[in-house]
Write a structure and sequence with these properties.
428 residues; 5-stranded antiparallel sheet; 14 strands
Length: 428
């Protein structure tokens, strides 16, 4: 009876009909994907989606709105809320949280925490992003909301705020619960929110291993080692979900996010993800190449930012000139929208310290938009400097874009110079 119950939640796959080997099945799917988009993923997965992180464009979709169990992808929301607490200063990475009996009793995989002990927020995050530790997830949930059920309420409230319309959470770890559901599209929405909203903490997802209690724990995310440009995010598996994966890859100043739900094996899931992303990168030109093809008459972006697409027939600047001789200014924008000026200054500081040689000639700007939204920008750069800086920041886990603007700033609201002398310390 238990087998029949589990099978209700599993997608029908070719493997469940024909007893072929995993390698043959995965290879068949890969061949289909690389030949044409079509809909090959049904052979090895329940649902999939690929999204351009900069534009939000959906480059591939298969059953993207069909409900599925998230498994340990649930922990992406646990981390999202944790990062919110870090940004607000309610927690620091060195804050020690108590380990309850409930947390310690979580099923494997786990760190093996002892009731009554304490671990730092940093350790809990590392335990989650590497081995998907269930006890660490519950420690964070209880430390933030007092109990795991209360934290689940917060998770659902946050999901609604992010526009995850088909997701519902019951626990912080993703351990089996018949009422815990999501979709590939909602998981891509959450992944993009993590990337855009937490550039100072996103680097945790690319950690290949960490040491705990005398052990070296290796990341479960094989694509960090197998697929160039991969910088996270999360794997997941329970019997009723199959093998899940959310991946971010940065190549040529362009970031794509992929989601695969319900993979029949780890091998099939990972190789389908690589095939989908490879196809997406090869099919779509980079935003910079697209921008260079835009004529001068191209329509401007929304007035709030008062920015035109990069390189609208403007000659590239010579390396080393802080401002191009034509008078155009190249801008590096780090992250997306921020809710307050303090977060912008913190992000500017983090970016400047990450690639100091490339941004030392840049002017730091806190740009205030309508509706209490802020942007973090480095200006007064030439094209080569902006491209190099953005590429380096992307490889370090920052969300980044660069573009040129005319000398006029009349459409920018209340731009103010961010002085490093008055920056507040990062809560880390």
């Amino acid at each position: 009876m238990k087998l029949m119950k589990d099978r209700r939640f599993r997608p029908v796959t070719m493997r469940s009909i024909f007893p072929v080997s995993n390698s043959v099945l995965a290879g068949l799917a890969l061949a289909c994907v690389l030949f044409a988009w079509g809909e090959p993923a049904w052979a090895v997965a329940h649902a999939a989606i690929v999204v351009d992180a900069q534009t939000g464009a959906v480059l591939y979709s298969l059953h993207a709105d069909t409900p599925a169990h998230p498994a340990s992808l649930t922990k992406l929301m646990t981390l999202y809320i944790t990062f919110e607490q870090l940004k607000s200063g309610k927690l620091t990475l060195d804050t020690e949280l108590p380990v309850s009996s409930h947390a310690a009793a979580q099923q494997p995989v786990k760190l093996g925490l002892r009731p009554g002990s304490r671990i730092t927020v940093r350790t809990a995050i590392l335990g989650i992003v590497t081995i998907s530790a269930n006890d660490a997830a519950v420690v964070l949930a209880e430390g933030i909301a007092g109990s795991e059920p209360s934290f689940a309420v917060l998770m659902n409230r946050t999901a609604q705020k992010l526009g995850m319309k088909n997701t519902h959470y019951y626990n912080a770890s993703g351990l089996p619960n018949a009422g815990q559901w999501t979709t590939a599209r909602d998981m891509s929405t959450l992944a993009l929110a993590l990337i855009h909203n937490f550039p100072a903490y996103y680097h945790f997802f690319s950690v290949p291993s960490f040491r705990f209690d005398g052990r070296t724990l290796l990341s479960d995310d094989h694509l960090l080692r197998l697929f160039p440009g991969t910088d996270g995010l999360k794997t997941g598996y329970i019997r009723s979900s199959g093998y899940n994966l959310v991946t971010s890859v940065v190549r040529q100043h362009r970031r794509l996010v992929g989601v695969v739900l319900g993979g029949t094996t780890v091998y099939a899931r990972d190789h389908l993800m690589m095939a989908l992303l490879t196809r997406a990168f090869s099919n779509q030109p980079s935003p910079l190449l697209e921008a260079r093809a835009v004529k001068k008459s191209a329509a401007p972006a929304p007035k709030a930012a008062a920015l035109r697409l990069a390189g609208d027939e403007t000659k590239p600047a010579k390396p080393g000139n802080p401002v191009p001789p034509e008078g155009r200014d190249w801008v590096v924008q780090v992250g997306r929208y921020f809710p307050n000026e303090q977060d912008v200054r913190r992000t500017l500081k983090s970016a400047a310290l990450t690639v100091p040689a490339l941004l030392r000639n840049g002017r730091e700007l806190v740009v205030k938009l309508r509706g209490r939204r802020y942007l973090a920008q480095f200006t007064r750069l030439n094209e080569d400097m902006a491209a190099s800086a953005c590429g380096a920041l992307s490889r370090k886990g920052f969300t980044c874009r660069f573009f040129s603007v005319p000398p006029s700033r009349e459409d920018r609201a209340e731009a103010s110079l961010s002085s490093r002398r008055h920056e507040t310390q990062d809560p880390e």
